[in-house]
Write a structure and sequence with these properties.
The chain has 310 residues and is of the alpha/beta class. It has eleven helices and twelve strands.
Length: 310
């Protein structure tokens, strides 16, 4: 019997092995015929609260449906970890955290596909109690049926990363033991590495002295991305933070892009996200390094993304 993601990841961690895993799909033959990337754009930029919420849900569903639907990624009975950016004590309008309605929609879609349980959490930078509430993610995800919780320091386990810079690190066990992992970053500027996208967002699953990752970030982020390897990446670019990231705080630093992109190639998604902030992907050190290592492609257009307007 083929071992599932939880058994495989746990056994590899116990054995001290680094991992570069392909996505685990409920139907691999079906998945092979589906797009690797999608880009869903909204026809307008709504300003009313209800209309903005509707935009997020429609964009998210459209982006996932264009890939073949959530059932491509989630099987009946799966335990799913949805990993947004919940790092900062900021409301959704300031684009420091992932759009809460994007997160809630993904939770709903996981349950619709048959998931047994969906977890939503992050290792915050600001106070977790304030951040979970002010981001709007806790309320939205819980109303969608997710289990939202503060990370328990006792559940971090030292695992062999075997990367170029990071050899071992404390990783949150619940993430490792989940059957499926969905990474849901927001597109933001970052003062150190220019952009924070899907690979940077994975730092929310690690413990320890996270500032050590910043000492050689162009290598440490690909190290982590190669080990974790999400099953699905959903890029929130409804609002993007163009300056003074990753914290932000000034509405003038926020721009509306009104789109959600999704796919299985985290490097391609990050390359696309970099262009939304005016960068060439090859000029962003950690994205270029990840591509050199074979973790994905800088040339996201080579994947022939399915593009649609909602």
């Amino acid at each position: 019997m083929e071992s599932n993601r939880r058994q495989f990841l746990t056994s590899c961690a116990a054995a001290g092995l680094g991992m570069n895993l392909p996505g685990w799909f409920s139907n691999e033959a079906f998945a092979a015929d589906q797009p690797q990337m999608s880009i869903a754009r909204y026809k307008e930029s709504p300003t009313e609260k209800d209309a903005i919420q509707e935009e997020a849900e429609k964009l998210t569903r459209a982006a996932i449906d264009a890939l073949g639907g959530m059932a491509r990624f989630i099987s009946k009975g799966d335990v799913v970890w949805v990993k947004p950016n919940i790092g900062w004590d900021r409301p959704a309008e300031l684009a420091a955290n992932t759009n809460p309605d994007v997160v809630a929609t993904l939770v709903k879609m996981c349950y619709e596909a048959g998931a047994k349980q969906v977890h939503v959490s992050d290792n915050t930078c600001n106070d977790q109690k304030r951040t979970f509430v002010r981001s709007g993610i806790q309320k939205a995800a819980e109303e969608a049926g997710a289990r939202v919780y503060f990370l328990d320091p006792r559940k971090y386990k030292k695992m062999a990363i075997n990367g170029k810079t990071i050899k071992e690190w404390e990783i949150y066990a619940d993430m490792v033991e989940a059957d499926k992992l969905i990474n849901v970053p927001i597109v933001k500027h970052h003062g150190l590495c220019e952009v924070t996208l899907s690979m940077k967002n994975l730092m929310g699953v690690i413990g320890g002295a996270r500032n050590r990752y910043h000492q050689d970030i162009d290598n440490s982020l690909p190290d982590l991305a190669a080990f974790v390897k999400p099953d699905l990446v959903v890029l929130d670019a409804i609002r993007v933070l163009t300056r003074n990231g990753p914290v932000g705080g000034n509405p003038s630093d926020v721009a509306r892009k009104d789109l959600v992109a999704a796919g299985t190639d985290q490097v391609a998604l990050d390359a696309f996200g970099a262009t939304l902030l005016g960068h060439k992907p090859e000029d962003i050190g950690h994205i270029k390094e990840a591509a050199v290592r074979g973790l994905g492609t800088l040339d996201y257009a080579s994947l022939s993304p399915k593009e649609l307007t909602v």
